[in-house]
Amino acid sequence: MLGTPPVHRDPSWSYVDGGPLRIAFQRVPEPKTGKNRAHLDIRVADVAAAAATALKWGAREQGPLQTDAQGSFQVMHDPEGNEFCLVSD
Questions:
Q1: Which residues of the chain have pLDDT under 70?
Q2: Whole-model pTM above 0.90?
Q3: CA atoms within a 13 Å half-sphere pointing along the CA-CB vector of 11
Q4: CATH class for domain 39-89?
Q5: HSE (CB half, 13 Å, CA atoms) of 31?
């Protein structure tokens, strides 16, 4: 989704580099119990196409595609329930 392949350091820790930004993903033993402490908005050229890709990877949509004067966005959940949005300007 971020346009660059992930680097898998070990089975529980991976990251994606995007210019000066690195986003790391680490498995933890306890389940998610509350709201995300961080929320990612991922800018994409086509929200519907990106959502279809995310669905193939196990994500699920939360509600319908939203469109306003600033663009469109789709709220998604990853397979563990963490929220993120796919957005276009």
A1: none
A2: no
A3: 0
A4: alpha beta
A5: 4
